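Cross-posted from the bioinformatics board.
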Amino acid sequence: MTNTLEVDGLGKVYGDIRAVDGLDFSVAGGEILGLVGPNGAGKTTTLRCLAGIIAPTTGRVRIDGRDIRSEPVAAKRALAFLPDEPKLFEYLTAREHLNLVARLYGVDGWESKARALLDELELADKEDALPGELSRGMKQKLSIACGFLHDPRLIVLDEPLTGLDPIGIRKMKQSLKARAAAGAALVLSSHLLPLVEELCHRVLVIAAGHAVALGTLHDIRSRLGAAGGETSLEDLFVRITAPSGELAARSR
Amino acid sequence: MSILPLIGLLWLPSLKNRLRAQARRLRQPKYLVATSMGALYWWWYLGRRFFGLPPPRFEDRVHLVVEVGLSLLGIATVGVYWIIGSDRGSLKFSEPEAQFLFPVLTQSQLVHYKLLRSVITGFAGATLTMIVFGRRFGHPLWFTLGSWVAFTTLSLHAIGSSFTRASLAEHGISQAHRRIGTLAAVAAFGGLVWWSLGRIELPSPEPSLDWVVRAASAFDVGPVSWVLLPFRSAVRLALAPDAATFAASLPAALAVAGLHYVWVVRAAVEFEEASLEAAERRAHRRESWNRGVGTPKIGSWRRAPFRLSVGGGPEIALAWKGLIGVVRRLSPWSIVAMATGMAIALLSLGHAPPGRMATSILALIALAVAALFGPALARFDLRHDLVNLDVLRALPVTGESILLGEIAAPAIVLAVLEWLAIAVAQATFMWRPEFSVGARVSVWLTVGCLAPALSLAGLMVQNAIVVLLPGWVPVGPDRPRGPEAVGLRLIAVVANLFVMTFALLPSAIVGAALIALLWTTVGWYSLPIGAALTAFLIGLEVRLAAVVLGRALDRLEP
């Protein structure tokens, strides 16, 4: 299987702070990688490096074989980045957002695709609404529609379910699975561990900017010597990321 | 919970932390330089006014003119509140205030919390006004205290009128009806002033200060004096030369302020009741929208300026986005104002020379403002989109394309405004007979080439500041404030002038050389040819700047 995303030695330094340090991982087409870690672990910094929003201090990010630094436009054409807080242009309607995205990514026949996406995300009756007229969840859905319009090869999601209602969450999960099944690679960062457990083929756990575990849940359980096959990701997460003193206290 | 402890718990720590954060920024040389420059400027402008020799005091008879003039200014301010004020209550709370204060404070306390803030802001404004103007009129202390009462009263009027307008709107009285009512009241007052002025006898046939003093005395008697009375009470307090006059004027001024206070508190309650009804109506509407009935739509006149096809450069797409933003920012009133201005300009064509001359001068001023200050004012480019920088950075677009696309919309808008101003000036300007039609056309074509080019260069400089010094662009709570903000603006103005001079000089020299070369052959027609070359070269410089700055934008981290 070819890797859609390849990350080698990714590091990001802000002044004296090493936010991300030496991350190596790859994601193949059709695979969903879960990115988990405590607050301040470097998840969002990692995602922003993957999306080309910030430049890594060290290392390399390749999307669909193209380096995000040397070929940013080509690499970003294959990418969709969906931040946790939907950022939209306040004076463009939902339909105009999709029109803009279609132009920037060169999406032929965008109108039918856009209509299908708006239907799928239950935004069909909001296509002439401005972002200010949409609820938080609807904005999130519009942001998702914009991200999916150009059929990206890599989808990077930061807390994708924030603001969605239960039906929206269910549809979003189905949509993510469908896109992975269609061959897209997904990187999903979330604190909702059951979601990660349900959707992701592999999990990358980072703490203090370092990768502390990478693999399938089964692999991680085996490596930690977790008893039985039923140890949840939440339990594993606590064992991996909790400071050693705290862990000792918990075990007592 | 009382609101007074909130000052200790909320405002003082916030102020302390803000000052501490600003002090920390001084470790960075660029902020240190900016703050020093701002502080020096404040000292130069304000310090010498306060500590320097007092300026010559006005004659006593001028005091009457100033008192009446400031009172009329107060009336005009109140008129503006009622005419252009929005239909929403003006007590705006920040999200943290709403989250932390709403559950623990009563409605009355919330109103008082905001009023207290406007009273404190009024004191800051009064102190500043005293430093700038106060020593010309009277005692600094009485001027400060009097101005404080005046500003607080005006502020209360702004809040009270906003609640009343909101309440009227909730009761179905439209904005247009309210504005017509206000304009009728203003017209009635204007008629009263006209009638009062008509009753005075001018002291001399020649215009002089005596004319103005006599005109001001017309406001001392009759019905017009009754209308002016509440405004004069506060102004008189500020202009009091001594403690005795201040004490004598204080009861009337405080009574006016007190009545405003009662109005605000009562209007807030009425508004709250009306807004509860409105909230129910909005809930019904929202329910209808959710069912797919009556989804809010933008008016047809606010549709996109053109259809964006899939093929083509990203710059056009970003310009399209910017132009949509311009169209949707325009209120119907601004369009009416522009149409009225154009209508007046066209009507003046058939009228006497003074009207035509005034119109052409106004058009030329508008042209100069658009060309020189337009780039600083038309901020719907990267300065506006800086908050969306991470969205722009995630798009498959180079920094160069982003820059060109972002400045295209304001450049187009400014060019259209400039050409409109030129058209009006051209139609109304009274040329001397020795200028031929060819000469006149050449001059307007020259201006028509140079003005948009100048704006374009100015826009690139403004956006260059965003790219190279993003921390200087006022966005969000971390934006520069106080002397730092003043210093940054000064540095930006100086840098702008410096860059513009050096950027424009070579193009201007080349254009001027071409004009000189062609002058003997084609005469006046050499002007637009040289201007077109200059504009082309400026365009080329802007393009080159976009390449260089685009690379910097690619490296810029949100």
